[in-house]
Amino acid sequence: MWTGFKKIVVTGGVGIAFLLLGLVLLYCFPLIFSHIIQKNLPLAKGSVSYKLWKDIPLPLYQKIYFFNVTNPEEFLQQSSKPKLVEIGPYTYRSWWTKENITWNNNDTVTYREVKKYVFKPELSVGSENDVITTVNFPMLTAATWLRNTNPLEKIVASVLMFLMKEKIFIQRKVKQLAYEGYPDLLTAVAPLIHPDVPKTHGYFGWFYGKNNTDDGEFTVFTGKNGISKFNTIEKWNGTDSLKYWTGECNKIAGTNGELDPPIKKEQETITLFQTDMCRSWKLNYKEVVNNQGLKCYRFSAMESVLANGTDNPENSCFNTSRLLPSGVMDLSPCRYDTPVALSLPHFYLASPSYLNDVEGLKPNASHHEFFLDIHPTSGISTSIGARIQLNAILEQDKKIKQFSNITDLVLPVLWQEVTGYLTEELASELLKELEDPLIYGADFAYCILAIGAVLSLVACSLLIYHWFEMRKSSRQWSPLLIDDKVDGEGTYSTEDGVSPRTYDHENVVVQ
Questions:
Q1: 413/138 Cα distance (integer angstroms)
Q2: Least confident window among 128-137, 145-154, 491-500
Q3: How far apart, in whole angstroms, are the C-alpha atoms of residue 120 and residue 100?
């Protein structure tokens, strides 16, 4: 019996040990694996993140949508609302590559990121030769620059624009409005009026000079000095702050959105720095999404991002003299005082007043939301929907004939989205490196737990079985003499004939 009990104890002990080991693996392995990933995450040649960082592996596309103005004369002469028809997308395949990479001694790396765009007609609604009726932005800029000059200069400028046959609305081809540009006399003389304006050989286009070029020199932390700084920007063009705004709004913070520090469990926001937006801004956590089998966190731009200083005091340092309603940001301080404003497409999340001033816009979250999906353990961006709208600020000026009757409003010109989504091939590679070990580790832990549960169950079963056997044996052991017999008359007798006893069937009486 003692040998059997010893086997039960050993079996139960092994089972409990397996159960404890399984629980430890189940809860500790993800932490250990996360630590290993983050240890190998910092930027360095050969690191997990380096090849994803140097040449963005996501197939990137830029889609441009233009707003065609269908009633320009009615708007100018009768103060009618501008009627807009969205035309697009005009799609460009994009490649982003880091060049001039320099590793610094303070755990930072300096680089320039060259962006190349190639038009893809098969992914577009039409040709780059499609004609769009749009605002004459160089003329609008000239009128804005003249706003604070004396009346005589305004009159002279008005006459010159008349002689040059400049009109507020013009027709241009898509390629001219995008990257190719078109010759414009006002653009040619702009550097003479405003010395800070870059020289463009007299050409204007919303993206002119942006193809096969970079957005400046970036210096980012590699993450070796702390994973929380991974790929965060230390300097842009040699400085850690801007000069366009006031106070904290000039601070350069966050990443460029390609790679982020690993996301903490309860993290609510991420910070991005966008050169086109002339600012850093925050995206808020929205939901968990599944991208090709990878569990990712989606961060999205909320109303507060482009709210004015009245609705969001944190943005008060972005305020300009125009005091625009929330949802549209005046970019003129960082765009050489040109009357351009930023918003989300179709004035999504903006004040209803903008929609009331025009016709043809239909804001929709699924089409116009700015979002970024991030794999929490590695910080890799697995899906991008960077959507912004450029708007022209129209303002009446009685001293300039061409602008004497127009209605003050923010007029949508175009919106663009830069998208990038995981391919199956890339997703498979990332799953193999980032997710499969966790799955295999969990499966192994569950197997250990199952073995421990079975062994513990076996030990319990054997223990219960032996307990019943012992109870059965104890019941069979009686205080009566082993060979006593009851005769047919209800009396006990013994084989030696000694001590006869009477047996009462209702009560046991021994005499």
A1: 13
A2: 491-500
A3: 29
Q: Length of the chain in residues, anyone?
A: 511
Identify the CA nearest to 409 among candidates 396, 397, 424. 396
d(CA 312, CA 327): 11
Mean per-residue pLDDT, 83-98? 97
pLDDT above 50 (res 511): no
- Tokens 């949802």 belong to 327
Over the stretch 70-82, which tens digit does the pLDDT of each residue have?
999 999 987 799 9
Output 504 or 33, whichever has higher pLDDT: 33
Up-side HSE of residue 99: CA atoms within 13 Å toward CB?
12
The alpha carbon of 371 is separated from its chain's Cα centroid by a whole number of angstroms, namely 5
Nearest to 6 by CA among 453, 464, 463: 463
φ, ψ dihedrals at 86, nearest 5°:
-75, 130
Q: Which residue(s) pair with 115 in the sheet? A: 96, 213
* Furthest C-alpha separation in the chain: 151
Strands 340-343, 328-330: pairing is antiparallel
Cα three-residue angle 202-205-210, rounded to 5 degrees: 100
- Whether 271 has a pLDDT exceeding 90, the answer reads yes
Amino acid of residue 420: G
Buried b / exposed e along 20-54 (16+ C-beta atoms within 10 A): eebeebbeebbeeebeebbeebbbbeebbbbebbb
Element (H, E) at 353: helix 352-356
Average pLDDT over the chain, rounded to whole? 85
The model's pTM is 0.81
| DSSP track, 423-467 | -HHHHHHHIIIIIHHHHHHHHHHHHHHHHHHHHHHHHHHHHHHHH
Question: Dihedrals φ, ψ of 456, to 5°?
Answer: -65, -40
